[in-house]
TrEMBL record, chain A:
This is B9 domain-containing protein 2. It holds the Pfam family B9-C2. Its main location: cytoplasm. It is found in: Cytoplasm, Cytoskeleton, Cilium basal body.
UniProtKB/TrEMBL annotation, chain B:
It comes from Elysia chlorotica (Eastern emerald elysia). It comes from the Eukaryota. This is B9 domain-containing protein 1. Belongs to the B9D family. It is found in: Cytoplasm, Cytoskeleton, Cilium basal body. Its main location: cytoplasm. PROSITE patterns: C2_B9.
Length: 175, 206
């Protein structure tokens, strides 16, 4: 069995309208992948930064996968939420990245998007907050029904991910 | 020689400097947080730096230049060591208050790395608590600093990023390849095809 170690951090997020943010993350992998240790999903701390240009989560990721095949390489998906001074949470964006397939250290920027509604809905969103959410969160990382969505771009999530592979060369995989 | 069962990770580096725009007189402590498979074979697990004031120029930097030296051994990369740095400073009344927690994984590739860590503090939950904390000098802090190296339970914490810390590392590893772990992309110009991969025997036969 080949093994993949994912060792890294969700560093933070930038480029959003306001930076009092937290991030829910999860990893989705194909059927042949098994998690030997580590958490498959989580939620970061809420950061309310002094300097207003980026939020920092410093959330550690340490996962050990075992797999029989390279199909269904794991993808990491995110939901960025904004928490205001009253403690209300508002969705700011969805995004996903594939985990890198080559060993080593990688600095990754994950772009995010948010679903938009009609013009009247975006006016009420401007004044009251809230806004459309995805009914099925699988759509964040799959392309199946995306053509039905209208979205708008939001900021970026920054990750520093290190990948250690084991036994891939024994199976003749070059990566 | 028998096949090794552990690999070694040697870290040498330093806590270089930091920027905390609003504070002065700061010192740092650091500790390592690692999983159950890991053990430190040499070097200090925790240490404290000197107290330093910020520079008087426009950069307003704190410089410690404090050495970090440790060697770890392990049987598996799970629980890879993390460096947890926590900075303390003196407030207006002269008591020690925490100015930031920062955490990063020790880099997984050999060589020289320079990282900039955001330093954050837990926030009081209400305005009244903030005022009492400021008066009494008892700001919120983590009971166990290693909690910032874990992912569980973080969703209930609210923090404020107040500064940045620069650390540099030089990493050496021993026996990772012998145990089968790849930390660098494969070199297709000079492939190392292990004995037993299907196809090498056929090539020898023909």
């Amino acid at each position: 069995m080949a093994e993949v170690h994912v060792i890294g951090q969700i560093i933070g997020a930038s480029g959003f309208p306001d930076h009092s943010l937290f991030c829910k993350w999860g990893i989705h992998s194909g059927g042949g992948w098994k998690i030997l240790s580590g958490l498959r999903e989580g939620q970061t701390q809420v950061d309310n930064p002094q300097s207003e240009d980026a939020a920092y989560f410093a959330h550690p990721i340490d996962i050990h996968f075992a797999t029989k095949g390279i199909q269904g390489w794991p993808r990491m998906h995110f939901q960025v939420w904004h928490q205001d001074a009253f403690g209300r949470n508002e969705l700011y964006g969805y995004g996903f990245v594939h985990l890198p397939t080559s060993p080593g250290q990688h600095d990754i920027d994950c772009p995010t998007w948010r679903p938009t509604g009609t013009f009247m809905e975006s006016v009420s969103q401007f004044f009251l907050g809230g806004g459309p959410h995805l009914k099925n969160p699988d759509l964040i990382y799959s392309g199946a029904d995306r053509y039905k969505l209208q979205t708008i771009a939001m900021g970026k999530i920054h990750l520093r991910i290190g990948i250690i592979l084991r036994n891939f060369d024994k199976f003749g995989i070059e990566c | 020689m028998a096949n090794p069962s552990v690999f070694l990770l040697m870290v040498s580096g330093q806590i270089e400097s930091a920027e905390f725009p609003e504070f002065d007189d700061i010192y740092c402590k650091y500790c390592f947080s690692y999983g159950l498979d890991w053990a430190i074979t040499s070097g200090l697990d925790e240490s404290i730096t000197q107290i330093t004031k910020k520079s008087r120029d426009e950069h307003q930097r704190f410089v410690w230049n404090f050495p970090i030296d440790a060697t770890f051994k392990s049987t598996s990369p799970s629980g890879w060591p993390q460096l947890v740095v926590y900075a303390y400073g003196l407030d207006a009344f002269g008591t020690d208050v925490v100015r930031g927690y920062g955490v990063c994984h020790i880099p997984i590739t050999p060589g020289r790395h320079r990282l900039r860590l955001p330093m954050f503090v837990p926030e009081s939950s209400s305005l009244l608590q903030k005022l009492t904390a400021w008066f009494l000098g008892r700001r919120p802090e983590y009971v166990n600093p290693r909690v910032v190296a874990q992912g569980e339970g973080r969703e209930v914490t609210r923090v404020r990023t107040q500064g940045f810390l620069t650390v540099s590392f030089n990493i050496i590893m021993k026996d990772m390849k012998k145990l089968g772990y790849d930390i660098l992309p494969s070199d297709l110009q000079n492939p190392t095809i292990p004995a037993g991969v299907a196809g090498t025997d056929a090539a020898k036969a023909s």
